[in-house]
Amino acid sequence: MRKTHLCHLDEIVFNASSDPKMAIVILDTSIKNQVAISITHVYIHDFPVIKTIHHAVNVTSTEVELFAIRCGLNQAIQLTNIKHIIVITNAIYATKRIFNSFIYLYQI
Length: 108
Hints:
The chain is of the alpha+beta class. The chain has a single domain, classed as Ribonuclease H-like superfamily/Ribonuclease H (Nucleotidyltransferase, domain 5). The protein is built from 3 helices and 4 strands, in the order αβββαβα. A 4-stranded mixed beta sheet has the order 3-2-1-4, sandwiched between helices. A hairpin with a 2-residue loop joins β1 and β2. It is globular. The protein starts with a helix and ends in a 10-residue tail after the last helix. The mean pLDDT is 80.
């Protein structure tokens, strides 16, 4: 099952990297010694456009993930001619809080 998901992710990224109107937002966060770090990368047409690193203290992992997703989306929305944004994260719980599949029927 994991291999199927990785193949599907490869296909999504390959298709997105060939479309100049599609942005890919990749983010990751970690908390160590009560200091949270979030790193966000925004790619357009297979080129890195934006890299952002944030540090925060005394926050939960869900708050950090939500902040990183919000920052990545805000940065991608500011780019010109972007019609689609793909967010890649490993934060399933935080993502489910943002995107309700019953409301947004067309999301993958």
